[in-house]
Specification:
mainly alpha, two-stranded antiparallel sheet, 2% strand, elongated
């Protein structure tokens, strides 16, 4: 098994008016996965040390949050289906090393981002909440969306699927559209942060807590008379 397709090496970055899929997919998935694993692990350690858990009743109930989780899981599922079809039906029915690496890293990165997402939802750090996701997840979603947009520099490349000359090109384009829409959705939902407690909810929680903790005034003997 070769890492890159025949007649193409990893060092060949620009080939026939575009980048090689071997180089682009290796670099993109490595950067995205490496970032979320390293930065996300550091964030999880911080939340584990300093985070305060919220009760179930304090968590915002949002269908968009569940949609955010589902769409995040759709991306590795699409990558797995694409991998299976590339080895059995579409293209030249061959599996290269970069395809395996891309699949493995994708399956690792997105579920791990959900772990970070759930921790941000269920825990509070000892600081005033912003009502938004942390820098780690926002950067991760930005990198994911940027990597999908970088594919457009290969519109004129023969080895990519933009020409739609065959059934394989059409299937690849369909997967790209689904993946692009999914990445756009999780990026926009990440900016909205539907599963994170908003500032108004936080201050209302503090007000109710303070109200419950206010001691009753002691009745003096003069008041009783």
């Amino acid at each position: 098994m070769l890492y890159c397709p025949p007649n193409i090496t990893f060092k060949q970055i620009w080939v026939n008016h575009g980048t090689s899929r071997c180089f682009m997919e290796t670099v993109e998935t490595s950067i995205v996965t490496g970032f979320i694993l390293i930065a996300g692990s550091i964030q999880l350690l911080i939340y584990r040390k300093y985070g305060t858990p919220l009760s179930v009743f304090q968590l915002p109930k949002s269908k968009l949050y569940h949609m955010q989780v589902v769409v995040t899981l759709i991306i590795p599922i699409l990558e797995l289906l694409r991998f299976i079809l590339e080895g059995t039906v579409i293209s030249d029915k061959r599996i290269d090393g970069y395809m395996i690496l891309t699949l493995v890293l994708t399956i690792i990165a997105y579920p791990f981002s959900i772990i970070v997402l759930r921790v941000e939802r269920k825990y509070l750090l000892p600081s005033i909440p912003t009502g938004r996701h942390g820098l780690v997840l926002l950067t991760f979603w930005s990198l994911v969306f940027i990597s999908e947009n970088l594919v457009f520099i290969n519109i004129g490349q023969v080895r990519w699927w933009f020409n739609l000359k065959s059934l394989s090109d059409q299937v690849e384009m369909a997967f790209f559209i689904l993946r692009y829409i999914s990445c756009l959705v999780i990026f926009l939902l990440g900016l909205k942060a539907p599963g994170i407690m908003q500032n108004s909810d936080y201050f209302n929680l503090n007000d109710s807590t303070n109200t419950l903790n206010i001691p009753r005034p002691v009745q003096s003997e003069y008041d009783s008379t």
